[in-house]
Write a structure and sequence with these properties.
- This protein is α/β, with parallel strands linked by helices.
- It is built from seven helices and eleven strands.
- The protein has one domain: Rossmann fold (3-Layer(aba) Sandwich).
- The protein has a nine-stranded mixed beta sheet, sandwiched between helices.
- β1, α1 and β2 form a beta-alpha-beta unit.
- α3 packs across α4.
Length: 214
């Protein structure tokens, strides 16, 4: 399976690309916004393409063509305004779904946000971010794609433990970005995660076992 990683230069994206590159089950193509980022991946032996989520659907489709799955782990970033969040986290995500369908990619993994599916639990300070994630997820659910939605808690830069909690509803929690990337890898070809969404935090269960228990 060849995996197209959107947001490959982000912190989760970089970790996921490395895991895919080291895997004997998957190959990877990284999508980034700048040629300098693409060149950095190429120097590390990773196939990389330049495309912009704020650009045309056809551009994203061309970049993804020939892949078997898409992982959307892009984000506008913490220092941008609500307008950029809507353009990237919502409209950019929807464009990538349209692109997937246009080139015959059916498998799609979305990195969302903890409790994005429950409006009553949204953080008021970044409500625009939850709105973007919520509606991107809902459109994905209605897209006909074979999706998995992962909703991680507060993201940490500390080393991963390889242990998680994953369920349709978790109240709150945090999780290392490394463990999010490992979980993405674990669900890619796992049928019990197809067409389902999960909250994800640190926990006591090894990732592979937690996925098998879903």
């Amino acid at each position: 399976m060849k995996v197209f990683v959107i947001g490959a230069h982000g912190q989760i994206g970089q970790k996921l690309v490395h895991l895919l590159q080291q895997s004997d089950r998957y190959t990877v193509r990284a999508m980034v916004r700048r040629e300098s980022q693409a060149e950095s991946f190429r120097q590390a032996g990773v196939e990389a393409v330049v495309a912009d989520l704020e650009g045309r659907v056809e551009e994203i489709a061309s970049a993804a063509n020939g892949c078997d799955a898409i992982v959307f782990t892009a984000g506008s970033g913490a220092h941008t305004g609500a307008d950029k969040t809507l353009l990237v986290d919502l409209d950019g995500a929807v464009k990538s779904m349209e692109a997937a369908k246009s080139v015959g990619i059916h498998r799609y993994v979305m990195v969302s946000a903890l409790q994005a599916h429950r409006r009553e639990n949204w953080n008021e300070r970044i409500k625009h971010y939850y709105v973007a994630k919520h509606y991107a997820d809902r459109i994905l659910e209605q897209s006909g794609l074979t999706y998995t939605i992962l909703r991680p808690g507060r993201l940490l830069n500390e080393p991963g433990t390889g242990h998680i909690s994953i369920a349709e509803n978790l109240s709150r929690g945090s999780v290392p970005r490394e463990d999010v990337a490992r979980t993405i890898l674990a669900v890619l070809d796992e049928k019990r995660t197809f067409r389902r969404g999960f909250d994800l935090t640190s926990g006591d269960t090894p990732i592979s076992e937690a996925i098998k228990n879903l």
